[in-house]
User: What shape does this take?
Amino acid sequence: MSIDTYKLTSMEEPTDEVLSQLMREAAEEARETNAQATQRYFDELRQAAANIR
Assistant: This one.
């Protein structure tokens, strides 16, 4: 079983290596999504502050 062929709905338990890779990928995606959301938040704050002046 590899990360490319494993399905979360599989009845077979993932190996420790596959599970570790899944967790790393999920963490990386969460970091990227969080960074994008943070950037949008501060962009909107700057825009709102600019409109107050």
